[in-house]
Amino acid sequence: MRPPRPPRDAASKPWEKRGPRPGPQKYGPRDFPRDHDGPVTLYGFHSVVEALSNPKRKIIKLMATENALARLAEANVPTRVEPEIVRPGAIDRLLTPDSVHQGLYLEAEALRIPTLKTIPTDGLVLVLDQITDPHNVGAIVRTAAAFAVDAIVTTARHSPEATGVLAKSASGGLEHVPLILIQNLARGLEDLEERGYLRIGLDSEGPATLDDTPLGSGGVALVLGAEGKGLRQLTRQTCDVLARLDMPGAIKSLNVSNAAAIALHCVRRSKPPTAG
């Protein structure tokens, strides 16, 4: 067992006495930061519908084809801004050739996001250790929204931004699961420990299965590593326990987004979300 880390004093957080740090950043470390720098690009029916339905998402611009506007009206989704009616090719030119926009393109302000100090102490959190593929992260966000995850923690570096491909892959999940951006993952895990979280690192070589790992009564943080590399050594050492998924078949590894879905299902069977 590691000895308890002494509480941090004001000297370790100079902004506690002097206010937000100077510099180009718009939000100081005590404020709610943004999940993305600058406007966010959202496209595709589900992503745009969820954004339009989220009162916390400030809409800047909406481009839509006539057919897409008809679908929004049929679904009783308010556009909230005057839409610019365009042909599909006008949206095609704004995106990469393989982007499936379904006639909808939205620009919006980034969402305010919570901090580790504001998430519930008995919550369920995903921690991503340098997972950089926006398709994978988007799929994880979508799954997290389905399992009522309280937050996804990832580093500001070595992670994709909450826009474009990630947002499309999340299929609206970004409106329901906040991405908490931190500078240092190990320090973030220590902050979760201080809030009573059990930090479980998912590892194919874990000594016990996730089903057989006691979850306790506090919060649970599932820590996932990048495909191929897995959890970094410092991340493994900072976790409380390592656990593997129970896979009786010949293949013992899964795409990280699939692993996240199975792990969340295992945890939710033992710790269902609290009401409200």
List keywords for this structure.
single chain, 276 residues, alpha/beta, Alpha/beta knot, 7-stranded parallel β-sheet, 4-stranded mixed β-sheet, 9 helices, 11 strands, 18% strand, elongated, SpoU_subst-bd
Quickly count the domains.
Answer: 2
What integer is the average pLDDT? Answer: 87
Rg over C-alpha atoms, rounded to the nearest angstrom: 20 Å
The name of the CATH topology of the largest domain is: Alpha/beta knot
Low-confidence stretches: 5-31
Highest CATH level, the class of the largest domain: Alpha Beta
The counted number of beta strands is 11
Biased composition (Basic and acidic residues): 1-19
Protein name: 23S rRNA (Guanosine(2251)-2'-O)-methyltransferase RlmB
Region (Disordered): 1-35
Enzyme class: transferase
Can you describe what's shown?
There is one protein chain. With 276 residues, the protein is an alpha/beta fold. The chain folds into 2 domains: 40-108, no CATH class; 124-270, 3-Layer(aba) Sandwich (Alpha/beta knot). The protein has 9 helices and 11 strands. The strands form 2 sheets. The chain has a 7-stranded parallel sheet with strand order 7-6-5-10-8-11-9, sandwiched between helices. Strands 1-4-2-3 form a 4-stranded mixed sheet. The longest helix is centred in the last third of the chain and has 15 residues, at 256-270. The chain is elongated. The two termini are 36 Å apart.
